[in-house]
Design goal:
With about 325 residues, the chain is an alpha/beta fold. It has 17 helices and seven strands. The protein folds into three domains: about 130 residues, P-loop containing nucleotide triphosphate hydrolases (Rossmann fold, 3-Layer(aba) Sandwich); about 60 residues, Orthogonal Bundle (Helicase, Ruva Protein, domain 3), CATH 1.10.8.60; about 120 residues, Up-down Bundle (Zinc Finger, Delta Prime, domain 3), CATH 1.20.272.10. It has a five-stranded parallel beta sheet, with helices on both faces. A two-stranded parallel sheet has the order 6-7. The longest helix has 19 residues. The chain is elongated, with a radius of gyration of 25 Å. The N and C termini lie far apart (about 55 Å).
Length: about 325
């Protein structure tokens, strides 16, 4: 069952006796468990019929004991087990799941990793309840996800602001939604979130970020690239080398891929590179400014500085010094 199907069922009061919410992406697991916690029972019913436990503080016999209780002056009781990954013998819950109490909603929140689908517990829950796997979204899908989320909040976001958030926050959906909430409480309803707003309320510089460095390198703008690197050097906590290198590595790897595409039409190239067509021009320009041999050399340089950022063959150079050296070698 998909996330949207699950939410729709819950809104329609279609409930199941057992829910297993598991996977690498915590955001959807938290969202679903919070929705159940907030909406299944009324405030009055919650007092006697809703229990939240944590995996490190509970064992299977206790969970089963609570799950077998009947609701008091309500149609259901809700039992939510957060951090279920902390329970070592979770498989022992299978005996209850085979004959679950229909008036109990048992919600197991197993975050930061999937449970093997071949296990009896998963198969049994799939038969009598709901198994939802919360998978991480691929990096190239994050901008579209942000746009959709912002639109659902009745706001809009500029393409550059969207990619600034993606670059700065990565693919952690919980972190992304928290930062977006910071933005929307500070701007008028239905306003557009642009790069200036992102810079003001989140602290991401609209002029000095990896996205702008990427463009400066692609256009061989030595002056701008050096300015950005100087800014990074004076703000090492916000722009560590270990964060900068992977983004540049991904960019130049895609430039190399673009150079070897036979069909460089807009839609095909954007699909092959897994990028938003809006940014395809950056790859076209960079591919024209560097030969394939030079791009391969740049990728090698980035690999070298990735190791140096982790202490390999680097005795005392700071991140700022390493970045200046790296950018010089890329541009010359």
């Amino acid at each position: 069952m998909t996330f949207d199907q699950l939410i729709q069922n819950l809104k329609n009061q279609i409930y199941h006796p057992v829910y297993l919410l598991h996977g690498d992406e915590a955001y959807y697991i938290d969202y679903l468990s919070d929705y159940i916690e907030e909406h299944v029972l009324t405030e009055t019913e919650k007092e006697f019929n809703q229990t939240v436990m944590y995996g490190k503080d509970v064992d299977i016999p206790t969970i089963i004991n609570y799950a077998k209780r009947y609701p008091m002056m309500a149609n259901y009781q809700v039992l939510i087990i957060k951090e279920a990954q902390e329970i070592s013998d979770l498989e022992a819950l299978t005996s209850y799941v085979r004959e679950p109490l229909s008036s109990t909603l048992l919600v197991l929140c197993h975050k930061y990793g999937k449970i093997d689908k071949r296990k009896n517990l998963v198969k049994t829950i799939d038969k009598y309840g709901v198994v939802f796997e919360s998978s991480r979204i691929y990096d190239n899908k994050i901008p579209a996800w942000i746009e959709t989320y912002v639109r659902q909040q009745q706001y809009s976001i500029s393409t550059k602001a969207c990619f600034m958030l993606t670059e700065f926050l990565g693919n952690d959906l919980s972190k992304i939604t928290n930062e977006i909430q910071k933005l929307i409480i500070n701007i008028p309803k239905e306003a557009e979130i642009d790069e200036g707003i992102v810079e003001k309320y989140i602290g991401i510089s609209k002029d000095y970020n990896v996205f702008e460095l990427q463009k400066a390198l692609g256009t061989k703008n030595v002056f701008k690239a050096n300015h950005i690197i100087s800014y990074f050097g004076s703000n090492p906590r916000e722009n560590p080398l270990v964060k900068v290198v992977p983004i540049l590595f991904s960019f130049f790897s895609k430039v190399l891929l673009y150079q070897h595409l036979q069909d460089k039409s807009r839609n095909n190239a954007a699909s092959a590179l897994a990028v938003n067509p809006f940014f395809l021009r950056d790859y076209e320009i960079t591919a024209g400014n560097y030969s394939p041999a030079k791009v391969k050399s740049i990728i090698g340089i980035l690999r070298e500085y990735d190791l140096k950022s982790k202490g390999v063959d680097n005795v005392s150079a700071s991140d700022g010094e390493l970045m200046k050296e790296m950018i010089y070698r890329i541009l010359h």
